[in-house]
Amino acid sequence: MSTIVSRRQRRLLAIAYHLFRPLALFSRRRGRWVVGTEEIAGMVSHIARALPRSTTVVHRPHAFYGESYDIVIQSPTSRFEMLRRLYGGPIVLAWLMQRAEGFIYVGSAGFLMNGFDEREFEFEFITRHGGRIVCYYTGNDIRSPKLMKELARKTGVPNFGTVLGKVDPVFETEEYEQIRKRRAEVTDAYAEVVFNARVDQLSYLSSATEPFLYFYPDDGFHDRRSKFADDGPVLIVHAPSNPALKGTDEVRRAISELAARRQDFEYRELSGVTNDEVLAALAEAHIVLNEFYSYMPGVFGIEAMANTCALVTSADPRVESDLGVDATGAWAVTPVDAIGERVEALLDDRAELRRQAIAGFEWARAHASNTASARVLREALARSDESARLAEPGQSQASTR
Q1: Four-residue CA torsion sign, 67, 215, 277, 292
Q2: Which one of 140, 280, 324, 355 has the largest count of C-beta atoms within 10 Å of its C-beta?
Q3: Domain range 2-215+372-400, CATH class
Q4: Tens digits of residue pLDDT in 133-172
């Protein structure tokens, strides 16, 4: 059934593109980008804000983010939900190809069903008709568990590769690994710019990549250093989207041991709640425990620093060089087996706790804000655009990478 739908989607895309083609005569494509189609931690919305003339498209809105989008392909309240789910993607893509200069793909999803070719048909169709492709990877969409496990063996430090198989055996199958290889090959062939964390999201990509950018909204930064003036209990917050991957068992063990001998803190664990509830907790929090199998902060970690919380995480700028040397000291680098020790040190030294929170706030505002990320994004797109202009006539954009 999926093979039949895929073939129909491809035919529909070709037909719809030519039907909509006259619209290109009345549309200004230059500088217009489409961002979609999979919302991951608000990244679609954040990237779109960095490109004011962009259009956002998602198949379905994210359950925990109250963002609005220009186009939502699927709608459970529509009488035509089945048709929209099966055939809405190619029609929307054909329409947007007349109006946009290029497409920024967040994650692994496309407009069409891509389980067979990892978006190769879709990417080839877009580039053949003059469109540009940018890929923005956010984690397991490109990360190779096999390569990560090899890195863990070399370094002796556990990472995502050592725990993914415990979450689901599928992560350790050859089929899963081959999909990541194929996805990397297609990306290398067609994407002119690729954003990825080189170590934290270790992959089979062979092309040069741009550092992962957070695009955290400028208005989400709040200097809350005044909360450290209170001598009351320290609020510690942990909000795991996936407890097994974030090291939650070790967090709970460390907190339990601390609670057995001291009562000067409160621990609050959030799971399955809206982003607004998480932000409300961060406004009060002093210490935030992010994730402990990662080499870079997660989006929750950026939210924590943006709210002047002292971040405790395994992220390490010495390993993930994409973070840059400026990240050194922005958070408390903490291995998964040293969570309790690090938290206790911060509880014992309120001045250091405050200093750490302020350092994180200043780093995040300078490097992870929408303004900072947008500048890097636009520079990367401009470099790619210049490379395409310098390419010989008839040379494809993909071949200029």
Answers
A1: positive
A2: 140
A3: alpha beta
A4: 999 999 999 999 999 999 999 999 999 999 999 899 999 9
Cα–Cα dist 395/232, whole Å: 65
Dihedrals φ, ψ of 35, to 5°? -115, 125
Extract the tokens encoding 133. Answer: 């492709």
Q: Establish whether domains 2-215+372-400 and 218-368 are of one fold.
A: yes
Tell me how far apart the alpha carbons of residues 328 and 326 are, in angstroms, rounded to a whole number.
5
Residue 92: exposure state from Cβ atoms within 10 A (0-12, 13-18, ≥19): buried
In this structure, are strands 287-289 and 310-313 parallel, antiparallel, or unpaired? Answer: parallel
Answer whether the bond into residue 37 is a cis peptide, omega within 30°.
yes
pLDDT number for residue 25: 76
Looking at domain 218-368, its CATH superfamily turns out to be Glycogen Phosphorylase B; (3.40.50.2000)
Q: How far is CA 401 from the centre of its chain?
A: 23
Instruction: Give, rounded to a whole angstrom, the gap between the first and last alpha carbons of the chain.
Output: 37
Q: Which residues of 137-147 are buried (b: 16+ CB within 10 A; e: fewer)?
A: bbbbbbbbbbb
Domain ranges of the chain: 2-215+372-400, 218-368
> 91: closest CA among 10, 195, 210, 177?
10
